[in-house]
Amino acid sequence: MKNNDLLVEKLGPVLSLTLNRPETLNAFSSDMILGLKAALHEAKNDLDVQVIVLSGSGRAFSAGGDVKTMGQADGNQTYEHIGKLNELILLMKDVEKPIIASVHGFAAGAGFNLALACDMIVAAEDSKFALSFSKVGLVSDGGGSYFLPKLIGPHLAKQFFFSAEPIPAKRLYQLGVINALFSLERLQEETTKIALNLAQGPGKAFGKQKKLVDHSFNATLEEILEEERLTQVLMVQTEDHKEGVAAFKEKRNPVYKGR
DSSP alpha helices (H): ranges in 144-238? Predict the structure, then answer.
C-alpha cells in the first residue's frame, strides 16, 4: 500500500524510514504512524535488514503533533490516536534491531519522544529539541515521561517539560541523550556510515543486548543476571557466535549474518 507520508527504502542491510510531510515539518498523521508500524513489522522478520534509520524530509525531523488539528479532537478521539502512537513506540522497542534517529532542524513534542524511543540518536549540530506540550496545556505523550528521566534524571526532565524551551543539540549531547553530532552537510553521510558499521556486526547479539538494556529499567539486578544467563545460552548456539570465534582464532575480520 502506497503511503505518501512515509518514504521507505532498503539500502542493503539498512532500512531507511523517512517522515514525509515536509509542509507540516513532518507532524504526525494517522497514515504516517500506520506506515511506520507496517514497515517495522516487516523489518522485524526480514533477515536482510540489520539496522533501521529514522529521519525526516524537508527542514525538520518532526514537529510532533499537528498544531493545525489541535483542539478539534474530543477525549475518545485523543484516546484512540495516542493508543496508535503507543503501539508504534512499543513496536520500536520490540524490534530486535538497532534503530537510529537522524535528526536535523527541529524535533519537538512527540517528535522528540519518537527520537528518544530509538536506540541511538545522531543529530545536526544546529538542530534543536523541545518538549513543547505545556505550551498548549498538555502533558507528554509518546513515552517521553518514561525515556527522558531515565537518561537525565527527574529534576532536569521536569525542567525541560515545564519550560518547553528549545534545547540545543549540543546540550543534549553533553547530557548523553545524543550519541553523535555532525554538521548538517555531513549528517546523512555520517549516519549511513554508523548504520553500515552496525550492520556488519552480530545482529542477533545486538538485538538481544537492546532487550537486556531496555528491560534493565524495570528489573532487579537478580532478574537481569538471570535474563543474561538465559540469553547467553541461546547466543552460544548462533551462527554469528561460531563465526566470531573462528575469525578470532584465524586472526581475520568476522563476517556476520545476523543469525
Answer: 144-152, 154-163, 169-174, 184-199, 203-216, 221-235
Please tell me the pTM assigned to this model.
0.93
Query: How far, in Å, are 8, 213, 229, 230 from residue 236 at the CA level?
Result: 34, 19, 11, 11
Which tens digit of pLDDT belongs to each residue from 213-254?
999 999 999 999 999 999 999 999 999 999 999 999 999 999
Check pLDDT > 60 for residue 40: yes
Strand-pairing partners, residue 122, are: 102, 180
Question: How many Å apart are CA 169 and CA 181, to the nearest integer?
Answer: 8
The tens digit of pLDDT for each residue in 138-166 reads: 999 999 999 999 999 999 999 999 999 99
Edge-to-edge strand list for the sheet holding 128-130:
106-108, 128-130, 167-168
CA-to-CA distance for 134 and 138, rounded, in angstroms? 5
Q: From residue 161, how far is each of 3, 70, 78, 103, 179 by CA, in Å?
A: 32, 19, 20, 20, 21
The contacts of residue 73 (CB under 8 Å, 6+ apart) are: 81
C-alpha cell at 24: 507540516
Unique residue bearing C-alpha cell 524511543: 117
